[in-house]
Amino acid sequence: MRAWVVGTPGPVDSGPLRPVERPVPAPGPGQVRVRVSCCGVCRTDLHLAEGDLVPRRAQVTPGHEVVGSVDAVGPGAHRFAPGERVGVAWLGRTDGSCRFCRRGDENLCTDPVFTGWDVDGGYADACLVDERFAYRLPEGLTDEQAAPLLCAGIIGYRALRCADVPPGGRLGIYGFGGSAHLTAQLALAQGLEVHVLTRGEHNRELARSLGVDSVTGAAGDSPVPLDGAILFAPAGELVPVALRSLDRGGTLAVAGIWLSDVPRLDYAAELFQERRLRSVTANTRHDGEQFLRLAARLGVRATTVAYPMDAAPDALADLAHGRFGGAAVLLN
Ligand SMILES: [Zn+2]
Ligand SMILES: [Zn+2]
What we know:
26% of the residues lie in helices and 27% in strands. The chain is built from ten helices and 17 strands. α4 crosses α5 (178-189) and α4 crosses α9 (285-298). The site of one zinc ion (ZN) has 8 residues, from α2. One zinc ion is lined by residues 42, 44, 64, 90, 151.
């Protein structure tokens, strides 16, 4: 089968992705094999290709927003029948036994396996998944619409909860790409006031089209004090900017897996008055299932830009250079 792998991590324009021919993998115990029809392109894939994220395995195939159909079932796997549509997401497996898993925080597992980082992901014709970590997908969504929900959507949902905005409160969103545009729809549907601060005309246009309450440039201050904010842009210099825009008791949740250095904080102006700064780390399966249900019910829709699987490097480069609004997907 065809697959893309991260060869030598480096700047996206140096071509870190390499095409390879590999045998179709056979599902092991408890696993199913997924024939990939569509795989979303997440900023994490870019961080991996560029070497911001330390590779956990050489020549790994990226991709953790995978939609496809089950085409082989391993020993003991019985949750899905061949032909069923499933989603494969970032959380590939947890040990189920560490103290974080035992208290229900499997997103903090001390021995996790991530799709497209520890094990091969969906930039390929097929991939394997532990069936316990695969998702059933809502009907009524095409494969292309469903793919971005699997990381961009789920992580945004967790970030929104972490930002802890009271009912009817004001949410700030810094950076407006694949994850943010889904999160904004969720927040609006839940009755929050949404203020978007982002660079890039594509992003601002997309935000406006969703009917958010205000759109301004990322470097600017929020037009209103915020009850909570989510930083989607991987830009540490925005942490103090966003903290200063928080009202008393507000929370800033940093959604990304990678962030450039955060400058020195000014305690009085940026943290005092019980403002909180927190990260968002992966998600639990419960988050995923809840989000997929909510997205279907509330009509959350991804704006997608489709590329053929063969053009994966172009999709990553376009993401790096901000050449589209919404979420890129690769189609087989
Ligand atoms: Zn664990
Ligand atoms: Zn992701």
